[in-house]
Amino acid sequence: MRKAGEKLLGLFRKEDPNRKPELNDALQDFQREQHLNKNKSNHIGQGAFGVVFESDNPNKVMKEMFRDKGGETLQEADMQDVAAQMGFAPRVSGVETFRGNVSNRIEMDDIRENFEHHGRAARSYPQGIDAVRVNQQLGQLALKGVSLDDRHNGNIVYNKMTNRPMHLDFGMSNRVEGEMQVDALARATSDGFVAAGLDDVAQIYFDTVYDYLAGGQVAEAMDVAKQGFSRLQKIKKIS
Questions:
Q1: CB-side exposure of 167: number of CA atoms within 13 Å?
Q2: pLDDT cut 90: percent of the chain above it
Q3: Ramachandran area for residue 234 (φ above 0: left; ψ -120 to 50: alpha; else beta)
Q4: Could you tell me if 54 and 105 are in contact, meaning their C-beta atoms sit under 8 angstroms apart?
Q5: Lowest mean pLDDT among 22-31, 46-55, 61-70, 218-227
Q6: Mean predicted lDDT score pLDDT of the chain
Q7: Is the separation of the CB atoms in 171 and 74 below 8 Å?
Q8: Which of 78, 197, 206, 230 makes the best surface tag, with the fewest CB within 10 Å?
């Protein structure tokens, strides 16, 4: 198993264990697509860039992209795989790409049985201890070189027993290093402090990190960013 943070390689359309050798590939592909289209018509969720529906494999779901400008599906799967290795996202089991990058798909674990959404509005953002926990995870991802945005309630679910967050939809994620990595870590930490009610700490922390960045002192900025994040990670509950 690759270590989190390493580039994802080898994700490809895997052989279907249910394929019948007596039928030709074209017919089996046609039958499979019919089955998937039926699942898609009863989709689990749909956004501006893709639709999620049950896979033809048990306990799996697929995210199908409406469009891919070139490599975006593989990049999204790569970013999600990093988070999955850390326990922050559903495990990716395969990627299927098609001619013209139309309807590319990512297959992943179906986690609906053990996870649920929080918050009344899907497009609002986590609050209180949920927001603290989400930003603790975003900070850990930043330290692995991944920046993940668009963290509204529709893109986060929580374990029904532990309330631990799990992240969905890695369409707005990127690999970061240098100043961009410092920025990702500082934003997550500052937002976490605000969620915990430590607005003054957040402001001082934010200003200090960005003063160093403005002066071109990236290493010093990262050191301060890490120190602040270490304090954020110690927050387990808020009053």
A1: 32
A2: 76
A3: alpha
A4: no
A5: 22-31
A6: 90
A7: no
A8: 230
Report d(CA 30, CA 149) in Å as an integer. 37
pLDDT at 22: 54
Does 121 fall in a domain?
Answer: yes
The percent of residues in the chain predicted with pLDDT above 70, rounded, is: 90
Domain limit, last residue, from 80, 109, 138: 109
pLDDT for 148: 98
**Inside any domain, residue 10:** no
Query: Do 101 and 150 belong to one domain?
Result: no
Q: Are residues 166 and 68 in the same domain?
A: no
105 with 121, same domain?
no
Rounded to an integer, what distance in angstroms lies between the CA atom of residue 133 and that of residue 135?
5
Would 175 be classed as within a structural domain?
Answer: yes
**In terms of residue numbers, what domain contains 225?**
115-233
Between the CA of residue 207 and those of 182, 188, 213, 224, what are the distances in Å?
Answer: 13, 14, 10, 11
Classify the C-alpha dihedral 169-174-178-179 as positive or negative. Answer: negative
pLDDT surpasses 90 at 49: no
0.85 exceeded by pTM: yes
E strand or H helix at 52: strand 50-54
Alpha carbons 221 and 214: distance in angstroms, whole number? 9
Q: What tens digit of pLDDT does each residue of 88-136 get?
A: 999 999 999 888 777 899 999 999 999 999 998 878 999 999 999 999 9
CA distance 108 to 156: 15
Contact 90, 166 (CB under 8 A): yes
DSSP code for 6: S
